[in-house]
Design goal:
By secondary structure, the chain is α+β, with helices and mostly antiparallel strands. The protein has helices spanning 2-10, 12-27, 30-35, 52-70, 76-82, 84-105, 111-120, 133-143, 147-167, 175-186, 209-218, 238-242, 249-263, 279-291, 295-302, 320-326, 359-391, 396-403, 430-439, 472-504, 509-515, 538-544, 578-604, 610-621; strands spanning 41-45, 48-51, 188-196, 228-236, 268-276, 307-313, 334-339, 342-352, 408-412, 449-450, 456-465, 521-522, 552-556, 562-571, 606-608. A four-stranded antiparallel β-sheet has the order 12-3-14-13. Strands 9-4-11-10 form a four-stranded antiparallel β-sheet, with helices on both faces. It has a four-stranded antiparallel β-sheet with strand order 6-5-8-7.
């Protein structure tokens, strides 16, 4: 029978039947059959799977960190552009690689050890710091974990720690590497140097007409105008409409009388404190308080630096004991209060008494408030009227005149920086208005540009000046200056090369400098990163370290100056501080660990279910 089936499979009818079967299997998920990854598996390292829940947890943590910088959670396409999914998968694959190796070594974690790790986790501590079962359930629920998932993940983490602590316990950085790093970071050079200037060279020859034309042709892109559009604009916002209102003296006086109680500013006190961490300090401050010793003297004697609490009204202090004590003390008085971790001395450094502004002092504030209130009641009606007038093709000047709004006539470029002339427009909105201006057609009705806070901008488009190449007559002065600067820079570099050659041939820098009226300066010792006083920057330092004793050279420093130098002293590096070496050693260990894990992952093979990954991100974060 099997022989018959094999014969049928080799025939043309059998091959056709096989094609139909292949299509049928494809409809039931042939992609997963081919890649050997289930729909719930995002990736696999060897036999260790990374499932969708595990990936989403790690991805969410990374996405939240990115959202704090962007202001929003990135979509799937944005995250892909930033390489976020790849970074998360690589991190998870490192853990999966260690899990695979731990399985090969037969490592495990007992239930007793898992229980101990759970009880010692501060995330699950109650009020007294002991393990709280209800807290444990709340934290897992908030994180979307089941108990089984948590214990599995904690077990994997413990096994990885066993593996790492065993494999990399003796991974110390070699002494020769430590010595090289110390020497690199702390070795110093001292140089004599002169700074060349325009007085060090002959003035460059003025360019001819032919040279000017040739330079402009070669650098035409640098001498090209940008497209500019002239527009007449008006803006309607609470601020712009309020500016059109006139508030009478009688209205201001009446509002002052009606609201003067609310205009009173409360008493505010500037408070500072020191923490009294020992019984001796408490006794010292109590004795000083009884003897009338001032707070500053006591703090100095105790070697304490007061920390500022702030300048606050009593209602702004949430600690009632502190509020009562602070506002019961005279200026420069202090009291000893209970605090977190011990007692503290609280000092009243200054008192700002409560006050009531006069009518003249409050006039501007009241006028602004009343005009804002009037504008708030009218803005929607004015908006409707302006839209009707624009629909009737009324020009901007007539609309502005009708409502008392100012007209801004501006030459606007694509960046929109010229819109800073409109005081009620925020910088964040310049680009939106500029885009509308550059998208506008003068032969069509131009709609309003909606802005934040129910504000709008309307404009009439005027002259459009397209981008173009400028002629030599238009930019003659700029081209002449550019050529002069280029020739001067080239001459300075050539002079520096000439001086270095003379120094290498045995001439003294002082003699060369005397010819140029540039007297050598002696630097302080500096490292490869420059001098502490900033005179030798990192660029010049790198040039000095490019050779040994008596090395001569030149460099253009970060300020754009051409400097010629000669090394006069070379000092070997000194050992770095132990804390720095410890930090470098930890980096070395981490790098070694990463390389080993990467090698394990490469040997086992990392397979990614791209279809499942993409679908997971789109479903949860949008395209």
């Amino acid at each position: 029978m099997l022989d018959g089936l094999r014969s049928f499979a080799k025939s043309w009818p059998g091959k056709i039947m096989g094609a139909f079967l292949l299509v049928g299997v494809a409809g039931f998920g042939i992609n997963n059959v081919i890649v050997d990854l289930g729909s719930n598996t995002v990736a696999r390292v060897g036999d260790e799977e990374i499932n969708s829940r595990e990936f989403l947890r790690a991805y969410q943590a990374q996405a939240n960190a990115v959202s704090q910088q962007m202001g929003s959670v990135p979509t799937a396409s944005q995250a892909e552009a930033m390489g976020l999914p790849t970074a998360v998968l690589l991190g998870l694959s490192e853990g999966a690689s260690l899990d695979m190796l731990a399985n090969d070594f037969g490592l495990g974690v007992s239930d007793a050890k898992l229980g101990q790790l759970t009880r010692e986790d501060p995330s699950f501590g109650g009020t007294l710091g002991n393990f709280d079962a209800s807290r444990f359930s709340q934290v897992l629920q908030a994180a979307g974990w089941t108990e089984a998932e948590y214990f599995e993940a904690r077990g994997d983490e413990a096994r990885r720690e066993q593996l790492i602590s065993t494999l990399f316990a003796g991974a110390e950085m070699p002494a020769v590497a430590s010595d090289l790093i110390s020497d690199y970071a702390s070795a110093t050079r001292t140089i004599d140097f002169i700074t060349l200037s325009e007085t060090s060279i002959e003035a460059p020859a003025a360019p001819t007409e032919e040279e000017l034309a040739a330079y402009l042709a070669e650098h035409q892109a640098e001498f090209r105008t940008v497209e500019t559009r002239t527009a007449k604009l008006i803006d309607l916002s609470l601020a712009s409409l309020a500016a059109t209102k006139t508030i009478s003296d009688e209205e201001i006086a009446a509002e002052y009388e009606a609201t003067r109680a609310n205009l009173t500013t409360p008493e505010r006190r500037t408070l500072e404190q020191v923490t009294l961490t020992t019984p001796e300090l408490v006794a010292q401050f109590e004795a000083g308080l009884a003897a009338g010793t001032d707070f500053a003297t006591l703090a100095t004697q105790a070697g304490l630096t007061p920390s500022s609490i702030g300048t606050l009204a009593q209602s702004e202090i949430t600690d009632q004991a502190l509020a009562s004590a602070a506002f019961g003390l005279p200026e420069n008085g202090f009291a000893i209060l209970e605090g977190i971790g011990g007692q503290r001395a609280v000092h009243v450094a200054a008192i700002e008494p409560a006050g009531e502004p006069t009518l003249e002092e409050a006039r501007e504030q009241i006028a602004n408030r009343l005009s804002q209130a009037q504008a708030r009641g009218e803005i929607n009606d004015v908006l409707d009227q302006i839209e009707e007038l624009r629909a009737a093709f009324q020009p901007i000047e007539q609309i502005a005149d009708r409502f008392g709004l100012p007209v801004y006539e501006l030459d606007i470029t694509a960046g929109g920086s010229e819109l800073a002339a409109m005081p009620n427009l925020s910088p964040e909105e310049y680009s939106r208005v500029a885009q509308a201006v550059f998208a506008a057609n003068p032969d069509r009705l131009i709609p309003a540009v909606p802005l934040s806070g129910n504000a709008h901008v309307w404009f009439d488009l005027g002259e459009v000046a397209p981008a173009r190449d400028q002629t030599l007559d238009e930019v003659r002065a700029e081209v002449e200056a550019a050529i002069a600067e280029e020739r001067a820079n080239n001459a300075l570099l050539a002079k520096a090369t000439e001086i270095v050659t003379r120094l290498e041939n045995g001439e003294a820098l002082a003699d060369v400098g005397f010819e140029l009226n540039a007297f050598p300066q002696l630097s302080s010792p500096f490292t490869r990163f420059g001098s502490e006083d900033g005179i030798i920057d990192s660029t010049l330092a790198a040039a000095a370290f490019a050779g040994g004793p008596d090395h001569a050279g030149s460099s253009v420093n970060e300020a754009g100056e051409v400097v010629v130098f000669q090394v006069v002293d070379v000092a070997e590096g000194t050992p770095l501080d132990q804390a720095v070496l410890d930090s470098i050693t930890e980096e070395y260990k981490a790098g070694t660990q990463s390389e080993v894990v990467a090698a394990i992952r490469e040997d086992a093979g990392l397979r990614i279910n791209q279809q499942a990954l993409t679908q997971l991100l789109v479903n949860n974060y949008g395209q």
